[in-house]
Design a protein that fits this description.
- By secondary structure, this protein is an alpha+beta fold.
- The protein contains 19 helices and 24 strands.
- The strands form 6 sheets. It has a 7-stranded antiparallel sheet with strand order 3-2-4-1-10-9-11.
- Strand 21, helix 14 (about 395-405) and strand 22 form a beta-alpha-beta unit.
- Helix 10 (about 285-300) crosses helix 11 and helix 12 (about 365-375) crosses helix 14.
- The radius of gyration is 24 Å and the shape is elongated.
Length: about 500
């Protein structure tokens, strides 16, 4: 049975592939990691895991404790597991949404851990490698036996095979040949290590909690445990935290490479990251409001009629909860600078308790699943011009059903405003987009009028790529963004994508 590159059950059909967390020198390392993963749950819901490093005085050596399973963080870890099984003062954790490796194989649940000649080693990885095929083939020819189908395992084998004596030398060796997008936490017996790719594709931050150091995919993990944000892990940087660092406060930082221009994933600002996080040198909430504001300037609501009823003059702006909430605030704030005949309303209610849907003969499973997730407030939408602000359109199937659901509330018109450009290409850097043939913009050759007709709306407008790029921050002279999903311009070379799709994603 083949598992495809995307998850067709997903309402959005687009996910970031995971979140990583690591903490060093804390008496409740497992509990802190649990809360850190809880704050990163939006980045992956398929599985989660925690590995702790515990020193065993009676054996005079370190031992790694591991617990991981399918499901949500809340359901995987109990108080007994965190306190009694996951002992130790250092830990790394991982939330997973697969983009490489089968999602239903237990061996693919991270963190991965091994024992090699230098001791214990564990790894959590957010992103995707782009030279997986050649690295995997080389290792197999050298006799390496793989236990998983994930590209992340390659990194562990490369570290174990390095001839350099010190861990920093091994890591520099490895990450000079590994290509792609990666924000990685590595745990050894007595060290916590953070590594970020030279392009800085995925967000990765460092914080401090008293005398403990913390790393996470997003700063929302720091807030929940009251850690202070220090700075981002720099693109092409390796940071090693050990006892010496905690005592002196002097970081051990090594640069193995850095791109001339960074390629931060612009979709992190549009959709993935939480609004309360700080990524790529800026607050997500602030950027998302700016994107919404610029959308209002570039693609304003439709002109209003002049009916006799004053209330009917007003255009209603609603958001698709929850990912477009913040951008919609920016959109409506900008529009109201020019007219008061517009209101921001809550027209859609989202249920956060969506379980399995049991379908009767003749029922549409996708439609039933949508109805368990969204419901409309008819009194708000009836006989109004409705502007829906959403962050993106991937396949368009779910949005088409959502429009159909809203139509039942009898609005006058439905207009769509999208805070990103049309998605025309898949991502190979850690986002779960479908293949290009399934993308609605690709299917219709980027013809917005045809997409509008398919969705069944009265108008459809996307934010242009130029305006999107003007909406995001440039905190350093090297700041730049990956827009491959909108432009087909891939900043990191990808080896043999056709072969990669078949061999790595259809498992």
């Amino acid at each position: 049975m083949k598992k495809k590159f995307y998850n067709s059950k997903s309402p959005k059909s687009v996910h970031s592939n995971c979140g990583v967390f690591g903490i060093f020198n804390h008496p409740q390392a497992a509990i802190m990691t649990y809360y850190g993963l809880h704050a990163l749950q939006h980045r992956g819901q398929e599985s989660a895991g925690i590995v702790t490093s515990e020193f065993k005085p009676e054996k005079n050596r370190y031992h790694f404790n591991v617990h991981k399973d399918f499901g949500l963080t809340l359901n995987i870890f109990t108080e007994k597991i965190l306190k009694d099984e996951l002992k130790g003062n250092s830990a790394i954790g991982h939330n997973r949404y697969s983009t490489s490796g089968s999602s239903d194989k237990r061996v693919n649940i991270q963190p991965f851990s091994v024992v090699y000649k230098e001791g214990n080693l564990a790894l959590s990885h957010n992103g995707n490698l782009t030279n997986t095929n050649s690295l995997r083939l080389k290792l197999q020819q050298e006799g390496t036996i793989f236990q998983t189908t994930s590209d992340s395992e390659i990194i562990l084998h490369l570290i174990a095979k390095s001839n350099k004596e010190k861990i920093e030398g091994k890591l520099v060796d490895v990450f000079r040949i590994v290509k792609g997008a990666y924000s990685i936490c590595i745990l050894t017996d007595d060290k916590l290590i953070a590594v970020r790719d030279p392009q800085g594709v995925r967000p990765f931050s460092m914080g401090k909690l008293d005398n403990s150091y913390v790393f996470a995919s997003e700063t929302s993990s720091f807030d929940i445990i009251n850690a202070d944000y220090i700075r981002d892990v720099k693109p092409g940087e390796i940071i090693i935290i050990d006892r010496e660092v905690t005592e002196s406060g002097n970081l051990k930082s090594y640069r193995f490479d850095e791109a001339k221009k960074h390629s931060h994933c612009i979709f992190e600002f549009i959709y993935f990251s939480r609004p309360d996080s700080n990524i790529f040198g800026e607050k997500v909430d602030k950027v998302r409001r700016m994107i919404g504001s610029n959308l209002a300037i570039e693609k304003p609501p439709p002109d209003k009629d002049n009916p006799d009823n004053e209330e009917e003059k007003k255009v209603i702006v609603i958001n698709v909860p929850d990912s477009s909430n913040t951008a919609t605030i920016g959109y409506i704030s900008e529009v109201r600078k020019k007219t008061t005949n517009i209101k921001h309303e809550i027209g859609l209610i989202r249920s956060h308790y969506v379980g399995r849907t049991f379908i009767q003969p003749g029922q549409n499973q996708r439609e039933m699943r949508l109805k368990t997730k969204f419901s409309v407030i008819k009194g708000i939408l009836e006989n109004r011009k409705v502007v829906i602000v959403d962050d993106s359109i991937v396949r368009g199937n779910t949005l088409k059903l959502l429009v159909k659901l809203i139509r039942k509330a009898n609005p006058k018109e439905i207009h769509l405003r999208i805070t990103s450009p049309p998605i025309i290409s898949p991502c190979f850097y850690g986002m779960d987009f479908p293949s290009k043939e399934e993308l609605i913009a690709y299917q219709h050759d980027g013809n917005v009028e045809k997409i509008k007709e398919y969705l069944g709306v009265d108008s459809l407008e996307y934010l242009s790529l130029d305006t999107l790029l003007k909406s995001v921050p440039y905190s350093t002279p090297k700041s730049g963004y990956c827009t491959a999903c909108f432009s087909c311009n891939y900043p990191i070379p990808i080896e043999d994508t056709e072969h990669r799709d078949k061999e790595m994603f259809d498992i």
